[in-house]
Amino acid sequence: MKSIINAEFSIREATLADVSALSELETRCFESDRLSRRSFRWMIEKGHALLLVADHDKQLLGYVLLLYSQGTSLGRVYSLAVDVRYRKAGIAATLMQQAEAHALDDGRSFLRLEVRPDNEGAIRLYQKLGYQPFDIVTDFYEDHSDALRLMKVLHHQPEITHPQVAHYSQTTEFTCGPACLMMAMKTVDDTLGLDRELELQLWREATTIFMTSGHGGCSPQGLALAANRRNMNTTLICSSDEIPFISGVRSGEKKAVIECVHRDFVRQIDASNIEQIQSNIDASVLSTYLKQGALALVLISSYRLNQSKSPHWVLVVSISDTFVYFHDPDVDWDDNKSVTDKGYIPVTHKEFNRMLGYGRPRYQAAVILKTY
Q1: What does DSSP say about strands 311-319 and 294-301: parallel, antiparallel, or unpaired?
Q2: Per-residue pLDDT tens for 10-50?
Q3: What is the mean pLDDT of the chain?
Q4: How far apart are CA 91 and CA 62, in angstroms?
Q5: Where are the alpha helices (DSSP H) in 129-231?
Q6: Is 136 left (phi over 0), alpha (psi -120 to 50) or beta?
Q7: What is the helix (H) or strand (E) element at residue 289, kind and residue range?
Q8: Is residue 2 very low, low, confident or very high in pLDDT (cuts 50, 70, 90)?
Q9: What's 359's DSSP letter?
């Protein structure tokens, strides 16, 4: 095979005509965790992604695949591959640099990736390009090997107030609130085990029983009480004294049950040492608390994250002058997502303020938890 180390190669976006060559390259480069032909087609046609290829004389030499998290400033280098016959030609570095330029043009300020800890060549490349390790994920790959997580800041260096905050993925579609509370509890007590039993116990304590459909979600009042019962210093901020989530419930019987549960929550809060504040919420309000060492369970509309119009809880872990960073407990494992995409998610203050609250009129809520 003729060497092209000194030859020119071009970088372009992949097309459907590249699928066969991409699949063949994938087979040559990886023994497991391979992308299928179907995955390549989906990424090119429908995926919220960028797939760049390097070619020379109609021969595909390598590719890089970026996945974009909607509504955030975050991108993820999902896969990078260069034909072993053409390595050391600068192809991988050029692919990465071109991907970063495209990511910036798309409004991304951070790129993250995973790499095997024993892949020394790839690690050297990423570190030379400015990627810094920040975590290790155990049992990440199909063969159960770990993954080293690296990140590059394309704009501002993130100010991580709580780098030790563990991530927990909700195991049901209705336990985002308990999952966020568990992450905060783990920050206070590192010995705490995070499991489904605790997740469902917290849900039983904090749920409003009904939602517009399906299982009930956790109200800010219920979450505040669950946190306070576990001796956490708790502040509850709500934009109004209305009953959360009730406006979307049509059944009069269900509404009566929600009202009953809410009144009981309010009575318990009034009898507790939970600080209550009625106020609108934005990034600047939350920043005041985080600067004091707190974490914040915050109610958002999930639409700007996944186009699903439903209330959703996230855990805000840091706020810099430019970005809000939060843990999202909802990891869609069937959509090529991983914890890498859901921890320390950066969004601008403006974008985050658009996410805040749920319903019409918009109901805003946050449960502030001091961690010291």
Answers
A1: antiparallel
A2: 999 999 999 999 999 999 999 888 999 999 999 999 888 99
A3: 88
A4: 7
A5: 176-188, 196-206, 220-229
A6: beta
A7: helix 283-290
A8: very low
A9: T
The Cα angle at residue 345 between residues 341 and 348, in degrees rounded to 5: 140
At 326, the amino acid letter reads F
Residue in the block written with tokens 């991580």: 160
Q: Which residues contact 93 (CB under 8 A, 6 or more apart)?
A: 125, 128, 129
Lowest mean pLDDT among 42-56, 204-218, 226-240, 336-350: 336-350
| Structure confidence at residue 4 (pLDDT) | 47
Dist. CA 72–CA 107, nearest whole Å: 9
Contact between residue 63 and residue 22 where contact means Cβ atoms under 8 Å apart: yes
Compute the average pLDDT of residues 249-268: 90
Please give the Cα distance from 318 to 313 (Å, whole number): 16
CA distance 101 to 94: 11
Rounded CA separation 52/66 (Å): 9
Tokens 């002058």, residue located: 321
- CA separation for the pair 177, 292 (Å, rounded): 22
Q: How many C-alpha atoms does 146 have within 13 Å on its Cβ side?
A: 8
Tell the residue number behind the tokens 């920040």, with chain if given: 134
Instruction: Report the predicted TM-score, pTM, of the whole model to 2 decimal places.
Output: 0.74
> Which amino acid, residue 185?
M
Q: Which two tokens stand for residue 24?
A: 């063949």
Q: How many angstroms from the chain centroid is the CA of residue 46?
A: 20
Burial (CB count <10 Å: 0-12, 13-18, 19+), residue 207: buried
**Lowest-confidence region among 278-282, 318-322, 331-335:** 331-335
Element (H, E) at 153: strand 147-153
Q: How far apart are the first and last CA of the chain?
A: 63
Three-class DSSP category at 19? helix
Give CA–CA dist 45/119, Å, rounded: 31
Q: Is 310 helix (H, G, I), strand (E, B) or coil?
A: coil
